[in-house]
Amino acid sequence: MVKVYLLLLTGILLLFASGKYLVESSVAISRLLRIPRMIIGLTVVAFGTSAPELLVSLKAAISGFPEIAMGNVVGSNISNILLVLAITAIIFPIPVPSTSVKRDWPIMMFVSLLLFVFTLNGWLTRLEGMVFVLLLLVYIGYAVIRARGMSKTEEDHKEEDSMRWWAAGLIFLVSCLGLAFGASLLVDNAAVIAEELGMSKRVISITMVAVGTSIPEVATSVIAALKKETDISVGNIIGSNIMNILSVLGVTSIIGPIKVDTEIARFDIPWMLATSVLLLMLMLPAARSRITRWEGILMILIYLLYIYMIL
Q1: Overall domain count for the chain
Q2: What is the CA radius of gyration of the chain?
Q3: Count of CB atoms within 10 A of residue 167's CB?
Q4: Domain of 218: which CATH number?
Q5: Are strands 94-95 and 123-124 parallel, antiparallel or unpaired?
Q6: N or C: which end of the chain has fewer CB within 10 A?
Q7: Main-chain dihedrals φ then ψ at residue 154, nearest 5 degrees
Q8: Are 38 and 150 in contact (CB under 8 A)?
Q9: Kind of pairing between the strands at 123-124 and 290-291
Q10: CA distances from 195 to 29, 58, 184, 206 (A)
């Protein structure tokens, strides 16, 4: 079993390193293309940090562990808010852009509710996956239109990225390979651990696998907070949650319909919805418009309560 745990840890570390360099190379390429900072946070960074969830979910579905695929996404969306955003807020209180409240959060809530409705019958079908992918294309198109409407005087437009095209492209490709290998190690060994400990694959996927695939979000958001790049920090979390549902579950269910565990449909997804509502409540006070350290601590306590309830 020691070997299994070491392989699991290796998979998580590979996901972390590969996710980190995937985001950095993606951002470098985006900046070379003169894409505004907000659009990088909502699409490029969010998609890059969702790549571990996508690779893990695809591997789980192909390996015959659909509950890991669904639990991974739902667990990641919960931990993105209650853990990742909370840790970031504790390090540095996060000012919340008004666009996150008025535009981004409603989109996240809409796709989360749609997932809830789709999974009520115990399945996420190919047709529903196609709906998610179509909505993903609409969302990306909407984000691009928003970017075009942004101020042309953004400093981000004038920044020259130090990474060259060939280096960014090479790092991007190597990172993708690392993600694929890391995902394989994580899924295979998580399934072995679940069987050995007598735990359901649902619990393993929502805790160990979800936190493992959320590590790139932790790194990206903490770095953004330290640099006070709050648009990327908040936009990354909301954008990543949207991408997790639309791209990860969309693509995975098109490859093969996903059978949804009853407890995931009736308990975990409602928790994900409640977590989204909590995020809105923390972002709403117009006078402050920030997530404070105390609120970050509160979110971590709520996350620990959730983990306690599912164990």
Answers
A1: 1
A2: 18
A3: 12
A4: 1.20.1420.30
A5: unpaired
A6: C
A7: -55, 135
A8: yes
A9: unpaired
A10: 42, 20, 17, 15
Task: Name the residue with tokens 């909505």.
Answer: 135
The per-residue pLDDT for range 157-200, each reduced to its tens digit, is 445 556 677 787 788 788 878 877 887 788 788 878 877 888 88
Residue 161 tokens read as 């990225």
As beta bridge partners, residue 235 has none
* Domain around 215: 2-152+160-310
SS3 label, residue 93: coil
What's the pLDDT tens digit per position in 216-238? 677 667 766 676 665 556 777 88
Spatial separation of the C-alpha atoms in residues 63 and 59, rounded to whole Å: 6
Strands (E), 69-114: 94-95
Would you state the pLDDT for residue 154?
47
Percent of the chain scoring above 70 in pLDDT: 83
Q: What is the C-alpha to C-alpha distance for residues 147 and 161, in angstroms, rounded to an integer?
A: 19
For residue 290, what is the enclosing H or E element? Answer: strand 290-291
What pTM value is reported for the model? 0.83
Q: From CA 272, how far away is CA 69, in angstroms rounded?
A: 16
Cα–Cα distance for residue pair 296/133, rounded to 1 Å? 32
Give the CB-side neighbour count of residue 15, counting CA atoms within 13 A: 30
Q: Largest alpha-carbon pair distance within the chain?
A: 58
- Around Cβ 64, how many Cβ atoms within 10 Å? 9
Rounded to the nearest integer, the mean pLDDT of the chain is 82
Task: State the first-to-last Cα distance of the chain, in angstroms, to the nearest integer.
Answer: 21
DSSP secondary structure letters along 71-95: HHHHHHHHHIIIIIIHHHHHHS-EE
Distance, CA of 16 to CA of 4 (rounded, Å): 18
Residue 102 has pLDDT above 90, yes or no: no
The answer, yes or no, to whether residue 44 has pLDDT greater than 70, is no
Is 137 a residue whose pLDDT tops 60? yes
CA distances (Å), 183 to each of 15, 158, 308, in order? 7, 37, 26
